[in-house]
Amino acid sequence: MIRRHISRLGWLCCLLAPFSLHSAPLQLDDVLTTLRTQYPPLVAAWLQQDIANGKIRQTVGAFDPMLIASLNFRPLDYYEGANMSFLVDQPLLSGGSVYAGYRLSTGDLPDYDRKDRTSSSGEGVLGVRIPLLRDRAIDSRRANMGKAAVDRELADPLILRQYVTFHRSARIAYFNWIAAGERLEVAEKVLRVAKQRDEFLKKQSEEGAIAPIVLVDNRRLVVSREIAVLNANRRFQAACIELSLFHRDPKTTEPILPLRAQLPQAFPKPQAVDQLQFVSDRGRAVFRRPEVREIDLLLRKGDIDKSLANNNLKPNLDLAMELNQAIGHDVPKDIEETEIMGLLRFSVPIGRNEAKGRLEAIEASIKQLQQRRKFACEQITAESNNTYQELRTALEALDQTKLNVDLARQLEAAENERFAQGATDLLTLQIREQATFDAEILEIDAFLAFYRALADYQAAVAADAPSHLLSSQK
User: How many CB atoms lie within 10 A of CB 40?
Assistant: First the structure.
């Protein structure tokens, strides 16, 4: 029954795995390459830049010219007349606005109402409105545009955070796949040993050299190891499925289940990170990690809000100038062909509690962000230190597990020789084999722990951060 399950699981592996003419070992770089271009969550993260660009264009729309048309008429009045105007108003990036257009009045209008009266052919209009105090350096439109530009830069650390996280997850999935394949190989190896010994013991039992119970004991061992292979095979398939989320077809972007034949011969040779490299990585981590950059940009948005709040505390002092150029030759005597009018208007809100309260809230928010920035720098340094120590410990543990495997294999080989000579029993040999099996599994776990620690370290120092996401920090 167990052999049938193992066979079915093997066929399932073949059905799930895509057809491939090549079975070259799958390298980590292959996985990371497809991750950067095909992994849907990362592709979605890149679209954050397009969203930010759209919002910038949206704020620029506040400076689009506006067509203003009006018609004033007096159907029941002593003066029966009407006037109309068509103006194009263009807000200025420097504050204020300019406008130009055409006015025309008809009928009978009072002489004292100059702004409503024109020649019979109308007049051209050109005017400008300039804020001298409030809204001179900044206003809500320019503030929104400035914050949208900061949001565009904020897209980079948001993408970078996911970029680093996904690379860490892909690395762990890749080495977990190798570890699962190694565990399966070890489980199959001890099963083969038990099956080969079963043939040997069967002949000895038939010759009466050993008691039948010894053969039964070994067959029990075969069954237990078949169960172990079944479980290891299932774990390997789970690791394949997990890795397939990161390893994708470059053309279709569909997940690719890696084949067992694509497993590398062994784990890559571990490379230690020396002290000088660590100090350099830790120093750059503060500038490479997205947290500090994100807070710096939020502080810039806070400065814009603070400038706008200070602007709102100022009184309004606006200057307006308008040029009217009459059209045609039938200009009334009390209207000049070319007229220039000016207006200076002053107003100030009493109390200004709304602006003062907003300024207090913004200043408190800026102080809050400054504290967050300080702690973020400390946290990045602490994470760098912690992952580096974890990496060193994992490397030392790996050296010890290698020695443990060597010693266990020596003891197993000696016990095998004694068993062949009849100097020991099957139980003692099984104990030695189990010890070797456990030592080899510990070594595989140690390799996985090292590469997991390496993935954590690389994420802590943002080793995968691409330069174009850091360019705004230089």
Answer: 10
- Domain boundaries in the chain? 2-59+142-303+359-473, 68-137+320-354
- Which candidate, 155, 162, 173, places its Cα nearest to that of 248? 173
Q: Tell me how far apart the 2 most distant CA atoms of the chain are, in Å.
A: 140
Q: What is the pLDDT of residues 153-175, one digit of tens each?
A: 999 999 999 999 999 999 999 99
320: confidence class by pLDDT, cuts 50, 70, 90: very high
SS3 category, 27 = coil
- Say how many C-beta atoms besides its own lie within 10 A of residue 122's C-beta: 19
Count helices and strands in the chain by DSSP H and E runs: 9, 6
Note the pLDDT tens digit of each residue in 372-388.
Answer: 999 999 999 999 999 99
| CATH number belonging to domain 2-59+142-303+359-473 | 1.20.1600.10
Region 239-258 average pLDDT: 93
Length reported for the chain: 474
Residue 416: CA atoms inside 13 Å, Cβ hemisphere, count?
A: 13
Question: Do 283 and 98 contact (CB within 8 A), yes or no?
Answer: no
Could you tell me which of 171, 164, 198, 185 has the C-alpha nearest to residue 228? 185
- For 137, the 3-state DSSP assignment is coil
